[in-house]
Amino acid sequence: MAPRIKTRDRIVQESLALFNAQGERSVTTNHIAAHLGMSPGNLYYHFRNKQMIIAELFAEYEALVDSFLKVPEDRTLTVADKAHYFEALLAAMWRYRFLHRDLEHLLESDPDLAAAYRAFARRALLNAKAVYRGFVDAGIMKMDEIQLEALALNAWIVLTSWVRYLCTTREVAGDLSEELLRRGIYQVLALESGYLVESSRAAVEQLAERLYVPLSDIGT
């Protein structure tokens, strides 16, 4: 028999599902409590307000990205690692897509969350630069430090704005799929193509074929 999920964890999990499905602004603590079949007072015992639930979900997302966006300490990077990074990014973006969809509103509504996000963004950019530097050191990509910095920043801009872009192209803003997010990962791979070393191009092109989603499927 599977262990029973703690009430606090259930609140976090179901809030994530509701935020993803309906958008954070459409979901209140009363909606969450009703969805869970509990009284608002019981929910407030665990979380004083919705911002606390969002902060916990962001901490989960932050820890997840930190766990994979780094260079292995004991070996050189390979093209297979590029696929791993992209698949991990796709999974994180899909699981916590409401954070990307409602980011500006979330940060405006909670100064503490905004400060945490700024620190996360700085760290993620440093880690992304380290990963790209690892690909250069491995002979998979070729670029100087200025190009490397620009590529890391451009990749960050694409990934963090992709969900909001998709929402502008859909008849129903929340009508998203993991497949549509996959095209955003492909866009980053397209940014990298000019820096690939010829010997790694064939393997990366195979990865691009797996990630490609026609623009007609996005609605543009």
TrEMBL record:
Record bears the keyword Phosphoprotein? no
Q: Which residues bind DNA?
A: 28-47
What sequence ranges are listed for the domain HTH tetR-type? 5-65
The UniProt entry, under Pfam families, shows: TetR (PF13972), TetR_N (PF00440)
Gene Ontology terms, MF aspect: DNA-binding transcription factor activity; transcription cis-regulatory region binding
Q: Which UniProt keywords apply?
A: DNA-binding
User: Cross-referenced InterPro entries, in alphabetical order?
Assistant: Homeodomain-like_sf, HTH-type_TetR-like_transc_reg, HTH_TetR, TetR
What is this protein's record name? Answer: Transcriptional regulator
